[in-house]
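Page 47, continued from p. 46.
Same chain as before, 153 aa.
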Amino acid sequence: MDPMLPLIRLLEASSDLANPSPEVLRDLFERMRKIAVVGLSRDPLKAARRVPSYLAARGYEVLPVNPRADRLLGRDAYATLGDIEAPVDLVLIFRPTGRAGPFVTEAARRPERPAIWLQEGIHADEEVTAARAEGLVVVQDLCAYKVHRAIYQ
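Result:
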């Protein structure tokens, strides 16, 4: 069996057929180290907490962005993405579809040009199209946890 088959199936199930290829996603997880998580939740039952916790447990440095929290996952929380001065490799967005677009635009304007990931069920079609046109790696409507597990398990 092709080791990429589980990832291929996840991509086929996504509503965005323009998501990056399995190889690009694998390379992204291989090279990234620092992840800014917009909307990291204080509620341990929500995906917006479980997925970043999983990634942190796998060795990624997770930087929480939540204006209503002081600390999350043992780290100081940032009120906005713009408050993070250090370069990040990925901006992972957990905001509702109707509110996600401005975060995609803000992430795309960062000087280090991070990859941008909208979690499963989240879309910002116009902003995603614009970011992709600028050459950025952008994922939408795909679960980072499921993708990571498909690659490494």
